């Protein structure tokens, strides 16, 4: 028997558990950060103006004030503790005012009571949350030509990757077949030197490469032998995400002598800035991530891709949006940086998101139209479907099936373990040679070393949440994931195998053949929301009360994504030593949006991050390629994957449409002050907490959270009638728009005016009213649709749950 444990045992990663003396803490201080400083006291000129987005964070005044804050942090620590009893790790001065420090718990308690200290929070870990998707999204024919072709798509836009580093020698990042990359004086980042080859990680395509591990080192988790104290990617994840967003165009994906297409990033001419925070054995720490985000903004990136998220919520703040991580990202957005973050891989269950805040673009993962299927044919004529990215067995020929348990060299003295199918020294080559192996890289290698014609991995016990992806292998092979099909295979094998009185096999008469699984099939029922993609509703606090924010924001391809890989990457044992990998996760979806945002930024360099987010969301698709409403992969009652109608809690505003996003007609823009007012309007929020985290005071009148001028409307507790306003700005030519609404019958939705002409560059207000008609205890979904006379279609999703009081 070949149980599911085989797959789990094969891919377990070792965890390094190491404890230093004390812990790492993130400390938030009173006083503005450089990006928020506007009082002009203590001899420093004001650096910030709330009415201005995209400030120069590299200016002399900003740098001077940041150094002033760092000095204050040092003086505070020196006044409290002996120098040898603590270690300050980072000073944060640009995006937040604070620092991280390694202390004992008693010292942390004393620090929390010191004058000027707001919060002392124990650091937490973070975790990791393409050949075909450019075509699937229409980039080569509909988007790249508008920017000068693929060799100019994303020109001079810098994407910062806060991830596991990069493998710089990969052809996806090479410069030898491209036009020379000119200097970018506005980018202030640095390039570390590869400690092994003594050369810079940068080449013009890669413009920055730094690693952040001080918190991990202080926590005792960092092992320099395996974790690489450099930007070198020892995992594979960072190389993959960088290539999805900004990898070179037309790079052949070759494995085992076969080509699986040509890879390209979304913005193949964009520059790459690497900020390594993830490591092989332990993941990473929020302290290091905040330092990397701050450095990336200070260096001058245009876009940040975050395919990472915290393992656990912060403990000192009541509101999900108020913590050092999200506060740093709010300041990054104020500095003009667009942030794409993976939604998380906790689906299909609700409220599993790891990205909460409205200033972040939270990306859900879709299954696109490319699927890899295969099948095997048994000697009795039965066809069993499965997964197998492999060549077929020889045409018109079947091969004998031999179970790994029956192929043990000495079954009388040892009991079969599923891991044995990965150990050729335990198996009888004379039995296996020329046959097929019944029980996915080691299994393939074992079968190949024994001279088998192919192999089968059959799942006998299925576990909820198990995700199966096809793995490229050099010989015919297939993974049977359907437990029912496995039972048929076992019954056929047992009935066809002759045994002696002790159950030892005498003759193998079961036969099978494996079809060709190298070519994908294309489906019109795409995209679909991937089963693993985290779902909304968003939550406003850690008692999981619903927030008046739509999350996720948008859907992008995130399943079976081919892209570059680090040959020494250990994230997936099936791709160890390979230069490409096919990976799945919202980690793969986020860089699609980061790359497309770079294309929008290239065409509209003056747009704010919120305007780019609006353009992506209001033009998104809610229909699949066959014209039907989007569907989401879900579990049925028996925990078998099925499809159900998708909602905005699955896909946000819909599947990204890059062509439409470049020319959205109208955008809904939000300023830094709008986000502060949003924070102040959250029911039950502590205004002192808002001041502590953001250094901004709450005004007496701040409205309700749904008043935030974003490209969606969410009201989690609708009583009677609530009216919200949305200001739309025309970023195209003068156009007349007809305004219509659609909503589930439990809630009445009205929008005024019914029609309006918006001059080029001008703004108009749309007033939207929602009224409870009946209370069902469920959310209602709808939309406000603005249809322009020049062909623009602007869609604002509306979500509400009605209550009696």
From TrEMBL:
- Any one GO cellular component localisation term in the record: extracellular region
Record-level Gene Ontology MF annotations: serine-type endopeptidase activity
Q: Which domain of life is it from?
A: Eukaryota
Location(s), subcellular: Secreted
GO biological processes: proteolysis
**Catalytic center residues:** 163, 237, 587
Write one Pfam family the protein is assigned to: Inhibitor_I9
Q: Which residues form the Peptidase S8/S53 domain?
A: 154-624
Q: Which residues form the signal peptide?
A: 1-20
Entry's SUPFAM superfamilies? Protease propeptides/inhibitors, Subtilisin-like
Domain Subtilisin-like protease fibronectin type-III: residue ranges = 707-799
Q: What is its main location?
A: secreted
What keywords were assigned to this record?
Glycoprotein, Hydrolase, Protease, Serine protease, Signal
Q: Say which family it is in.
A: Belongs to the peptidase S8 family.
- Name under which the protein is recorded: Uncharacterized protein
Q: What is the lineage of its organism?
A: Eukaryota, Viridiplantae, Streptophyta, Embryophyta, Tracheophyta
């Amino acid at each position: 028997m070949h149980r599911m444990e085989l797959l789990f045992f094969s891919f377990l990663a070792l965890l390094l558990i190491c404890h230093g003396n004390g812990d790492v803490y993130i400390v938030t201080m009173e006083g503005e950060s450089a990006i928020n400083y506007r009082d002009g006291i203590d001899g420093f000129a004001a650096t910030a103006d709330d009415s201005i987005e995209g400030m120069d964070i590299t200016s002399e005044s900003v740098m001077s004030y940041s150094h002033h804050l760092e000095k204050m942090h040092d003086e505070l620590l020196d006044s409290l503790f002996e120098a040898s009893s603590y270690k300050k790790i980072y000073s944060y001065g640009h995006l937040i005012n604070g620092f991280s420090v390694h202390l004992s718990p008693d010292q942390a308690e004393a620090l929390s009571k010191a004058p000027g200290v707001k919060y002392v929070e124990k650091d937490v870990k973070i975790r990791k949350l393409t050949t075909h998707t450019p075509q699937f999204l229409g980039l080569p024919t509909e988007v790249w030509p508008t920017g000068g072709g693929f060799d100019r798509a994303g020109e001079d836009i810098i994407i910062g990757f806060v991830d596991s580093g990069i493998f710089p020698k990969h052809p996806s990042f090479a410069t030898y077949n491209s036009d020379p990359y000119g200097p970018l004086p506005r980018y202030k980042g640095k390039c570390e030197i590869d400690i092994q080859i003594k050369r810079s990680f940068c080449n013009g395509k890669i413009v920055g490469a730094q690693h952040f591990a001080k918190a991990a080192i202080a926590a005792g988790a960092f092992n320099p032998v395996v974790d690489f104290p450099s930007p070198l990617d020892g995992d594979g994840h960072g190389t993959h995400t960088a290539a999805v967003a900004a990898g070179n165009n037309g790079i052949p994906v070759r494995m085992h002598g076969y080509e699986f297409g040509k890879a390209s990033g979304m913005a193949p001419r964009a520059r790459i800035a690497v900020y390594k925070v993830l490591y092989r054995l332990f993941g990473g720490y929020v302290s290091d991530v905040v330092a990397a985000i701050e450095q990336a903004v200070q260096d001058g990136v245009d876009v940040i891709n975050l395919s990472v998220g915290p393992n656990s919520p912060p403990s000192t703040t009541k509101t999900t949006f108020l913590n050092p991580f999200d506060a740093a990202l709010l300041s990054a957005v104020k500095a003009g940086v667009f942030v794409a973050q993976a939604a998380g891989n906790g689906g299909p269950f609700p409220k599993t998101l790891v990205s909460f805040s409205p200033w972040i673009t939270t990306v859900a993962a879709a299954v696109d139209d490319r699927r890899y299927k295969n099948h095997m044919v048994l000697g009795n004529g039965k066809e069993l479907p499965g997964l197998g990215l492999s060549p077929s067995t020889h045409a018109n020929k079947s091969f004998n099936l031999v179970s790994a348990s029956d192929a043990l060299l000495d079954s009388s003295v040892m009991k079969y373990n599923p891991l044995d199918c990965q150990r050729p020294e335990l198996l009888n080559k004379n039995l296996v040679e020329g046959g097929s192996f019944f029980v996915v890289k080691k299994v393939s290698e074992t079968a190949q070393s024994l001279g088998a014609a192919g192999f089968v991995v059959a799942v006998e016990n299925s576990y909820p949440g198990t995700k199966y992806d096809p793995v490229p292998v050099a010989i015919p092979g297939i993974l049977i994931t359907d437990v029912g099909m496995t039972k048929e295979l076992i019954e056929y094998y047992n009935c066809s195998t002759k045994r002696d009185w002790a159950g030892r096999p005498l003759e193998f008469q079961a036969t099978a053949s494996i079809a060709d699984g190298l070519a994908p099939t294309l489906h019109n029922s795409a995209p679909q929301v991937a089963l693993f993609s985290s779902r909304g509703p968003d939550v406003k606090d850690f008692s999981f009360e619903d927030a008046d924010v739509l999350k996720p924001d948008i859907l992008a391809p995130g399943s079976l994504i081919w892209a570059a890989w680090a040959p020494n990457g250990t994230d997936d044992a099936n791709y160890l030593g390979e230069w490409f990998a096919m990976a799945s996760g919202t980690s793969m979806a986020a860089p699609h949006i980061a790359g497309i945002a770079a294309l929008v930024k290239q065409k509209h360099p003056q747009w704010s991050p919120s305007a780019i987010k609006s353009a992506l969301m209001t033009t998104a698709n809610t229909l699949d390629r066959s014209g039907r409403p989007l569907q989401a992969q879900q579990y049925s009652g028996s925990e078998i994957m099925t499809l159900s109608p998708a909602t905005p809690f699955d896909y946000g505003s819909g599947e990204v449409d890059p062509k439409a996003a470049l020319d959205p007609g109208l955008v809904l823009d939000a300023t830094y002050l709008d986000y502060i007012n949003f924070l102040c309007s959250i029911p039950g929020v502590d205004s002192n907490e808002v001041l502590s985290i953001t250094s901004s005071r709450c005004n007496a009148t701040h409205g309700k959270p749904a008043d935030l001028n974003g490209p969606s409307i969410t009201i989690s507790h609708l009583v009677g009638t609530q009216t919200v306003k949305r200001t739309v700005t025309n970023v195209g030519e003068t156009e007349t728009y007809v305004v219509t609404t659609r909503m589930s019958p439990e809630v009445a939705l009205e929008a005024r005016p019914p029609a309006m002409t918006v001059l080029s560059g001008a703004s108009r207000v749309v007033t939207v009213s929602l009224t409870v008609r009946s209370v069902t205890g469920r959310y209602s979904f709808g939309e406000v649709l603005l249809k322009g006379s020049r062909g623009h279609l602007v869609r604002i999703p509306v979500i509400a749950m009605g209550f009696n009081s």
